[in-house]
Specification:
Blueprint (H helix, E strand, L loop, with lengths): L4 H20 L1 H29 L6 H32 L4 H30 L7 H4 L4 H14 L4 H10 L34
Helix pairs in contact: 1-4, 2-3, 4-6
Subcellular location: Membrane
Protein name: Colicin V production protein
Keywords: Membrane, Transmembrane, Transmembrane helix
């Protein structure tokens, strides 16, 4: 089976990511990811404190949440990136700089593969197998990436999307118990009658 265009794209993405990480260094790549994770965590936990002030300028809940979380994220990313860049510069100029670049190459290759796995997962979900071009279906790297997609989906929780949506919208809706109707919709219960007592005549 010959190498297809898809295989060339896979090789190009992995090599580009690996070389870029080697130039930047392993420590800088890790600290860069840590900066993004820290900024996302800050936005996730701190935006409720900013939300009341943003609501003074808009009545749309989603816009207020997006503006609050986005502002906290950008501010945290700038501050954390400034600190981590200083740490990375110190490491890359030290005696372990060569080792740092070697580890960066390996890390970059792994990162490129992960990006491809996510892209293939989205591709498989969006495009039906019969509609995919032959240069994708016949690629030598496609079965390998598909196997990694299965492993990635296995470790993700099934209810991750509802949890994130409930957290972002700030609404924790609890469904009524199964088989139990809401109190407002419950039919009025007729008064109990004593045996032998005739029902009251209707007016």
């Amino acid at each position: 089976m010959p190498i297809t265009i898809f295989d060339g794209i896979v090789i190009g993405v992995v090599l580009f990511s690996a070389v870029l990480a080697m130039i930047r260094g392993f420590s800088r790549e890790i600290l860069s990811i840590a900066s993004w994770v820290g900024a996302i965590a800050a936005a996730y936990y701190l935006y409720p404190f900013i939300l009341p002030y943003v609501k003074n300028y808009t009545n749309d809940q989603r816009i207020a949440v997006a503006a609050s979380a986005g502002g906290v994220f950008l501010l945290a990313l700038i501050l954390i990136s400034f600190i981590t860049s200083r740490i990375a510069d110190f490491i890359i100029d030290s005696r372990i700089g060569a080792l740092d670049r070697t580890l960066g190459f390996l890390f970059g290759a792994a990162r490129g593969i992960l990006l491809l796995v996510v892209a293939v997962a989205f591709w498989n979900w969006l495009i039906d197998a019969k509609q995919r071009p032959d240069w994708v279906n016949n690629a030598k790297s496609k079965p390998f990436l598909d196997a990694l997609v299965v492993k990635l989906e296995a470790v993700l929780p099934d209810d991750i999307e509802p949890q994130l949506r409930a957290r972002i919208l700030g609404k924790q809706q609890t469904a009524p118990a199964e088989g139990q109707a809401p109190a407002d919709d419950a039919p009025a219960q007729a008064p109990a009658q004593t045996p032998g007592q005739a029902p009251a005549p209707a007016n």
